[in-house]
Amino acid sequence: MLSFGLPLYGCNQLAIDRIGPTLMFMGTQAQKERYLPKMLTGEEIWCQGYSEPNAGSDLASLQTRAVIDGDSFVVNGQKVWTSLAHRADWQVLLVRTDPEAPKHKGITYLLVDMKSPGITVRPLVQVTGEAGFNEVFYDSVRVPKENLVGEVNQGWQVSIATLMYERVSGGTRHPVERTINELLELSKQIEFDGMSANRHPYVRQRLAQFAIEARCLRLSRYRSLTAQLRGKIPGPESSFGKLFATELNLRVAMFADELLGSYSALDKGSLGAVEGGRWTQRALAARGLTIAAGSSEIQHNIIGERVLKLPKG
Predict the structure, then answer these.
(1) Fold of 13-153
(2) Is there a contact between 108 and 125 (Cβ–Cβ < 8 Å)?
(3) Res 204: pLDDT
(4) DSSP-assigned letters across all residues of 16-47
(5) Per-residue exposure over 214-240, b if at least 16 CB sit within 10 Å of its own CB, e if not
(6) Are 218 and 248 contacting, i.e. CB atoms less than 8 angstroms apart?
(7) If DSSP codes are grouped into helix, strand and coil, which group holds residue 238?
(8) Which of 2, 303, 305, 269 is nearest to 128 (CA)?
(9) From the DSSP assignment, how many helices (H) and strands (E) are in the chain?
(10) Where in the chain does DSSP place strands (E)?
(11) CB burial readout 250-273, b (16+ within 10 A) else e
């Protein structure tokens, strides 16, 4: 039905799909030469210090502080939901450097060595049982001034570039087509409503609709890729791909649950779990992908206000 392709997840995904491209367009020549090669080789793993306990979708409300002291920024505060922080060598970090400025101003974008004294990483266990997210605490962490990207107090513009790249990748990195292919194979092995699932008209209709939507998503990805190859930084239209991909992935996971019936409650390692319980894991993880990089609700607002130019509700 659809081609499988190569693995879309890598050990340095955040560097490749959003941090590296941001540095390519907005970093200094010295920063490009220092960091980009080791991103590509995987010698240095990166994470992204954006969300805080009271600043998630409303990212501009962040309160992690940095003050300039000689040739360094001194950082104090906390981040949360930081993917790969427990494995990362480096981090892009948003800090507030002017607490008196409006919330979208006074923010600065820094490159931080995760081995710096004063950084503490605490893993967070998710409903899937995995611990890919982390809390990160900063206690008087010193960051050299040469690790500043863009200008002091103008980091929001840099952070938006990273977010746009992230949302483009959010519409590309989730292997929805592969999941649909695997769901098709699953339908050949189980029964639904008294017959082989892949022969049931309802199941066939749902699978066909998923295939159509996945192909539309692929064509949209090609359009985004073409724009990037022409040297353009992704704009608010990148929210289309992120919204569509993660919501499609969620619908596919929920339909797999429907097909499996009571077996969908069996997690990995359980006796009788279908295909080792991986469909249950996918169902548990799928909702989180609609929240990461800006929730679906936020994406709807961006598309409505910035792309379709609709009035704010």
Answers:
(1) Butyryl-CoA Dehydrogenase, subunit A; domain 2 (2.40.110)
(2) no
(3) 97
(4) IIIIHHHHHHHS-HHHHHHHHHHHHHTSS-EE
(5) beebeebbeebeebeeeeebbbbbbbb
(6) no
(7) helix
(8) 269
(9) 9, 10
(10) 46-49, 65-69, 72-79, 90-96, 107-113, 119-124, 133-144, 148-149, 191-192, 195-196
(11) bbbbebbbebbeebbebeeeeeeb
- Check: CATH 3.10.580.10 for 171-307? no
Q: In sequence order, which residues have a C-beta less than 8 Å from that of residue 12 and are 6 or more positions away?
A: 39, 42, 44, 45, 46
Helix (H), strand (E) at residue 213: helix 201-229
Query: The whole model's pTM is what?
Result: 0.79
pLDDT tens sequence across 219-265? 887 877 777 778 777 677 778 888 899 999 999 999 999 999 988 88
Average predicted confidence (pLDDT) for the chain:
88
In sequence order, the 6+-apart residues with CB closer than 8 A to the CB of 157 are: 150
Q: Which residues are marked as active site? A: 166
Q: What percent of the chain has pLDDT over 70?
A: 93
Where are the domain boundaries for CATH 2.40.110.10 in the chain? 13-153
Residue 208, Cα to own-chain centre: how many angstroms? 27
* Residues sharing a CB contact under 8 Å with residue 227, sequence separation 6 or more, in sequence order: 234
Contact 78, 93 (CB under 8 A): no
In the chain, list all ranges with CATH 1.20.140.10: 171-307
Q: Which residue has the higher pLDDT, 299 or 66?
A: 66
Q: Which residue is it, tokens 């491209």?
A: 21
DSSP string of 54-90? TBSSSGGG---EEEEETTEEEEEEEE-S-TTTTT-SE
Q: What is the pLDDT of residue 131?
A: 80
Residue 76 CA to its chain's centroid (Å): 25
Structure tokens at 278: 């991986």
